[in-house]
Amino acid sequence: MVRVWSIVKALFASCLAASLCLLAVMAVNVMTAPALSADMAIPVSAAAMAALGYFGLYILVGVLLLGAVPAIPFIVMAECFRLRSILIYLAAASLISIIAFAVFRWAVHFQPSTRVFSIFPIPWTYVVCGWVAGAVYWRLAGRHAGERREPLK
């Protein structure tokens, strides 16, 4: 039971790290993007940064749904076969992030626009955030995959 709890904590921590990575990349892209409209009362970057802060929780929920759910079969397989290499976790997280992007694109009927989505480079952002999530999960739980622990006394 202790191992299951550490896996759940690591899964949530990796999703939080991926969400923060996604928000950081979006913030950098927003701050460096040219103004979308010249007649706005406040700078676009300030308005976009406020929107990023407001929708951060929604991004976390989206990452949990699109990232944690597909990761569960891999986590079970890694525990059963005692897979402990960080490269396996990074590759699996990359694959899961690409699947999450495909599901996201299908779910919202994603139509790239030069005005709105130019500040958010989607595919590589997802892959890099997947690498961050995979590294965090490996650090917290993947290094000890398949180990049996003694019960607490």
Descriptive overview:
The structure is a single chain. The protein is mainly alpha-helical and 153 residues long. The chain has one domain (2-144). The protein is 71% helix and 0% strand. It has five helices and no strands. It has helices at 2-32, 44-54, 56-81, 86-107, 122-140. Helix 1 (2-32) crosses helix 3, helix 1 (2-32) runs antiparallel to helix 5 and helix 4 (86-107) packs across helix 5. Mean pLDDT is 80; it is low at 114-119.
List the helices and strands and how they pair.
Blueprint: H1 2-32, H2 44-54, H3 56-81, H4 86-107, H5 122-140
Helix pairs in contact: 1-2, 1-3, 1-5, 3-4, 4-5
Spatial gap, N to C terminus: 14 Å
* Annotation, overall tally of beta strands: 0
Domain module tally: 1
Classification by helices and strands: mainly alpha
Give the amount of beta strand, in percent. Answer: under 5%
Average residue pLDDT: 80
Low-confidence stretches: 114-119
Our count of helices gives 5
The proportion of residues forming helix, as a percent range, comes to over 70%
3D shape: elongated
Largest sheet: none
SSE order = HHHHH
**Spatial extent as radius of gyration:** 18 Å
Structural features:
single chain; about 150 residues
Structure at a glance:
With 153 residues, this protein is mostly helical.
